[in-house]
Design a protein that fits this description.
Strands 1, 2, 5, 6 and 7 form a five-stranded antiparallel sheet that branches. The chain has a four-stranded mixed sheet with strand order 3-4-8-9, with helices on one face. It has four helices and nine strands. The protein has 259 residues and is α+β, with helices and mostly antiparallel strands. 28% of the residues lie in helices and 24% in strands. The chain has a domain of 175 residues.
């Protein structure tokens, strides 16, 4: 073979290889020692910035406005409730220690009482000829859907079987709480129905309209509510309309107070 095509081979001494390995190992050990030492020193000297402090970077995109909607409902009252959701998923004829899951969830949320003012026109407001008395005919107060507060709700207990624990390793979201939030929302709606939240909302609406009409010069204000429909979420305890004793003159001692 011609001399120009011959490959030159250079052999490094074993001592040089050992030195290189020692240098790399020493650098790794040095970093492993300096990081915790630097963290501890940052605690003793708070005025010095810690070069190894953890940083949080927010890569979230800008908010996107999906829709705008004009509201025509009067939110007359708000109730805050707390419920406990205890759900168990098991497999028939299999011990819960092997297959099964039980979760206890503490849910807290609020429910509003609303009165729809969107369809209130001249046919629902009657003014006396002397413009001293006015009568309002309003739709029945309704309970808005419950809203669960994620900041005040949490899982207080979770038990899972062996198979469920192993399967959770291969799942993207092994402890999803969506089902728990839905069940908590249902319980919050039921709790609001059994309370006097609807009646309280009607009282506050009467008070608001009485005060408003009084500022316009009316001295006699009557507020009637329609009977709640069977599809309404309002509780049956809400009375459909005022009786004669609930007709409050604005200038009386009971003006603006619930009936």
């Amino acid at each position: 073979m011609p001399p120009l095509l011959e490959r030159d081979t250079v052999e490094y001494p074993r001592s040089d290889r050992r030195r290189t390995r020692r240098k790399v190992l020493a650098a790794v050990v040095g970093i492993a020692v300096l990081v915790p030492v630097g963290t501890q020193l940052g605690g003793f000297f708070p005025h010095l910035s810690n070069p190894f402090a953890q940083q949080i970077v927010d890569h979230s995109p800008a908010p996107l406005l999906l829709a705008l909607q004009n509201l025509s409902q009067y939110h007359a009252a708000t109730g805050t409730f707390e419920v406990v959701v205890d759900v168990e998923h098991n497999t028939a004829h299999v011990s819960p220690l092997i297959s099964g899951e039980r979760t206890t969830f503490l849910g807290r949320g609020s429910v509003d009482t609303t009165v729809d003012f969107s369809n209130i026109g001249a046919d629902r407001v009657t003014v006396s000829p002397d413009r001293r008395s006015v009568t309002f005919a309003l739709p029945a107060a309704r309970l808005a859907p419950a809203v669960v507060d994620p900041a005040a709700s949490r899982v207080v207990g979770r038990e899972r079987g062996l198979i469920n624990r192993i399967a959770s390793v291969f799942e993207n979201n092994p402890t999803s709480e969506q089902e728990l939030y839905q069940l908590a929302r249902t319980k919050l709606n039921d709790a609001a129905k059994s309370s006097d939240l609807t009646r309280r909302g009607e009282q506050n609406t009467r008070r608001m309209l009485t005060t408003l009409a009084g500022s316009l010069g009316f001295t006699h204000v009557v507020v009637n509510f329609d009977a709640p429909s069977t599809l309404d979420t309002a509780s049956p305890a809400s009375v459909s309309s005022w009786s004669d004793r609930d007709r409050l003159p604005v200038n009386s001692e009971r003006a603006g107070q619930p009936g």
